């Protein structure tokens, strides 16, 4: 009723305006211009009197004449130019008013005069007037209808264009034309413009600030979707508006829930929304629960989100994995949320993995579902037994579930299950340590040899060979299983020979895989590269993986006994090591240089062995050893004192010298780690760090041979050469402290008698080292 009342006032105002206009005609007091204007006719032309009075706009008077005689606008423009050139005539515009009226409010107060010029779109003029005077949209629509019914008013659209501009990029190229109408929120049009032209998000912010400084903007966040939704009978339900940072599924769910719409209608609505080019739907299912979880101490551990039709136990399980909440809190969440509206709660254990199994005819045989707390192998073998699958089928299914199948790896987003075993348990027994404490439960799997189970259990709990052997008889008797061997088989590998033959290689408990492969390679003439690739394959086998502690095979291992019942240690030589260096390192470690005939016998035994080759007879000092892991296997690298720290070669008529550490790093990488692009710089850097660390310890230590870079069997000539080389580097002027230590080492070792007493074995007592001196006294020093 209020809108109608205002409309009536506008109609009355329009009638009053014409009365006012007529009275104005009679009240013209001052004649400004009078003349005759020619009127084109079919027979030629005739003249018509034309007069202008004070207050009249020339273009409006000429427009009346033009319409009276049906002339075109070219005539009006020509005459207007002549009239406006007269000295007493004032022309303020060159287009006529086609409509003018006063607008009053409901109290009769005049808001202003609405004036529409020729060429103007009425809806734009009305919109500008309404914005200026804060007139509501409903009033604007009524006014537009009234104006568009006038004889001389031409309305081509009902939407007001409140902003138009061509948008250019940083190079001045036109991106597109931006038109904003009054019935649309500017930010919504800006968002679509940015998306359609693939502009960055920063462009949206820039355009928003520029445009909203010129026209009113009610919101700063766009609706990516805004539409009136109708029911199946085409009756309007309400307007669905989706803000930019809201997930469409959640907004649609809230809209349908509010209006009591069913799930089928919601599904259709989701397809409508997600097919809109401006809408990105990350998920089709809405969140029925979305809330931050805060601990008692105030720590926010993240938001728990539960989708529609998602099992509560599954959602809480995945949340607990990411947030690492306690089991008690997890249980509390299950208790509190189970039973809430919209939340599915049919079980308490999370579903970890579910895979459909196809039958041979292409149909579905069934679904293997593994729930929390279940061992995948047990679920698979129970399924296989129910459906008559073979042992190989069950074996392969376990591989798929445990994420170790090469043909069926986990899909994106799926985590492999934690599998502690790959077959069901047929026998289990608790095992206690000698002190009575419980070690664990020894489990024997289906088709498992008891010795294999004992070996796995023993290695896991650090049992020695005698302790594992003591378990064999009781386990075989208690389990009632057939025991065919007393040594565990840790792994079986199959190697394909060049001629296509496949051979099985057994890895028994206590054997180092690289040693087994080395001896197999000797029998089959395998190259170093073939052995290396085979070792990497074996040591990275996901099932029953053998324990690979080193990459280098043991070529020789000799036990050395201090007495009949006391073992001193094992002299071990790995592939790639110089035997004589290892012998002298062992002798030095155990202070055996003057222990005849052991010192010479060890060297003879080693170099006479067919397993190793002694490339030189003079030993070099092993400065340090370091280890690098590649393909999951530890590789050892020994830094042996070189003949020279710098290796020089001819290069373009001169010499090019590189440090021995670079040569050693390159050789190591080319031999062991060819596929690792970053090997050389990493190994070289590690060698340099270790070399600096060794030299710092060496200069602080008491080993005189180490300061000269020699072993204890060094000859007088070797001592002289080493001293003369080092004294040039560490002279009294540049390195006085090191120079003094070099002098001390040379004085002692160059004197045969002093050297003899220095080389005497250390008499160890309570962590001290006692040595007889040249004068018959005994020096006592810490044993380091």
TrEMBL record:
<dbReference type="InterPro" id="IPR001623">
    <property type="entry name" value="DnaJ_domain"/>
</dbReference>
<dbReference type="InterPro" id="IPR036869">
    <property type="entry name" value="J_dom_sf"/>
</dbReference>
<dbReference type="Pfam" id="PF00226">
    <property type="entry name" value="DnaJ"/>
</dbReference>
<keyword id="KW-0732">Signal</keyword>
<protein>
    <recommendedName>
        <fullName>J domain-containing protein</fullName>
    </recommendedName>
</protein>
<feature type="domain" description="J">
    <location>
        <begin position="703"/>
        <end position="762"/>
    </location>
</feature>
<feature type="signal peptide">
    <location>
        <begin position="1"/>
        <end position="26"/>
    </location>
</feature>
